[in-house]
Structures are given as structure tokens and as C-alpha cells.
Amino acid sequence: MNTLQNLHQHCTFCDGKDTPEEVVLEAIAKGFGGIGFSSHCYMPIVQYSMTAENTPEYCKEINRLKEVYKDQIDVFLGLEYDHCCPLAPVGYDYLIGSLHNLYIDGEYRNFDGIPEKHKAMVDDYFGGDGLAFAKEYYRQLAKLPDKAPIDIIGHYDLITRYQDTQPLFDWNDKAYRNAAIEAAEALAGRVPLFELNCGAVIRGTRTTPYPQDFIIKELKRLGFGVVITTDCHQKHLMDAWMEEGKEFLRSCGYEERHILTKEGFIPVPL
Ligand SMILES: [Zn+2]
Ligand SMILES: [Zn+2]
Q: What ranges make up the beta strands (E) of 128-176?
């Protein structure tokens, strides 16, 4: 079986650079067995998401490509779901659950995209206390399955995105680590998988993938399966860092990863 696939793939329906068909053709050219689209769900407060209007078109187009290229590659219709999405995430083959926004004072507020937004969130809503921001992020992450049937937790510790250049808290602090672990314990049994997200390494904003190794070890202890993804916005990068990613997982104790098939997720050796 061809197990080469990427399930965290963006395209022109949100902030990706290539059309879905260009992505599928690139995946075929690279010898992929599967490609899963995970456009950003409609987020009313965010510019880079799909809109309410183009979401049905997205589903239609990916389903069309599934049919057209079915003899060459498995195409999957996924969604990168965020808790601020007002549309019910139904009809998808799988959901990645990711937080880019926090619910504060009765409103969703975006913190992601550029370093300044992470910093502004900490200053504006947490009195400059980065640890308080991190704790609230994990508290809300743990509740994500209350909103939608999530298959994969996306970029588990996105709040560490700019840790190398703009640290907002000490990620070795026991209190920080406990908050991340408590969320994992709450999510265990409710979400089967997390992603080793190599996107930030590929783009050069981090030197290691999401999540940090201590979190991966906890997720392993709690029985989570793992998929390797590239959170790809440019088609030529869809397979970047995948081999290094396997090595990283092995160093954290994993011996297998999961892939998506037409029959659902299955484990394969790393
Ligand atoms: Zn994301
Ligand atoms: Zn993404």
C-alpha cells in the first residue's frame, strides 16, 4: 500500500497558493497515495478562512476531484475546524480541530497569523501574563470536542509558534507543562489522533515541529495515534520534513503513525 499522504493541505479556497486540482496533480507527480484537503473553516473574524459562500463550492470541487482522479490517488475532503465556526462541519471525511482564536468576554478573538497578534492577545486580555494566556488556550482546546467530532488535534501547541524569537512564557515551566498535559488528559478518549505538524519547521519559524516532545510523550502514554502533516500552503512543500518527522516521532517513543483510507484511519509502521 502507498502510505505517503498529507492530510493538512490548504488551497485557494482559503489561504493556500494553489488550486485544489494543482495540488492533486502535484501529489500524483510526487507519488502520493492520498491527499487530504483541510481548508480553514469559515471564521467570521479572520481574513484567511473560507467564506460561508465558498464553503459549499469547496466541498463540491474536492468531491469532483475525488472522482476524476480516483484511479491515481485517494482524495479526501477534510476541514480545519476552529471553535468560532458558525457552520456545522458535516459531510467531511475527517476534521482537524485547531484553535486560532480564543473566546474572551463573550467574543471570539484571533491571536494567530503574525507574532504581533500573539503578543497583543497577551497584553490586551491577560495583562501581559503569557502563562495565563497559555493556560486559557489549553482550557479551551480541551473543550473542542464539545463543539464538533474532531478526528485530529491540529498544531497542539500553536501558542509556541514564535517561541524561538518572541517567547511569551517559559515552555519549560512546570505550570505551563501541566496545563498542556491536563488538556491532553481531557482530550484522551474523545479525540483519537493528533498531528505532528511540520509546517512551522518548513517555514523556518520553529526548529522543531508541533507539538513539543514532552507533549508527544504524554499523548503516547494516553493512547493517541498520530498523523504526520505539513500544514502545506504551497504545493511543492507538501512532503517537506516528512522523513525527519518520522525520526522525531521515533525519538518520542512512537513506532507507528496513522493514515486515512476509504475505510477510515489505520495504523502503519513508522
Ligand atoms: Zn491552523
Ligand atoms: Zn492549517
A: 152-153
Domain that holds residue 84: 5-269
Q: How many domains does the chain have?
A: 1
Sequence-ordered list of residues with C-beta below 8 angstroms from that of 114, at least 6 positions apart, any chain: none
Task: For residue 60, count other CB atoms closer than 10 A to its CB.
Answer: 11
Residue 173 CA to ligand 1 centre (angstroms): 25
Q: Is the pTM of this model over 0.70?
A: yes
- For residue 240, the CA-to-ligand 2 centroid distance in Å is 15
In this structure, which ligand is nearest to the CA of 97? 1
Question: What per-residue string of b and e applies to 67-85 under the rule 16 or more CB within 10 Å gives b?
Answer: eebeeebbbbbbbbbbbbb
Residue 89 dihedral angles phi and psi, to the nearest 5°: -85, 75
Distance 78 CA to ligand 2 centre (A): 11
Ligand nearest to the CA of 158: 1
- The predicted-structure confidence for 93-127, as pLDDT tens digits, reads as follows 999 999 999 999 999 999 998 999 999 999 999 99
Q: Report pLDDT digits (tens) over 37-95.
A: 999 999 999 999 999 999 999 999 999 999 999 999 999 999 999 999 999 999 999 99
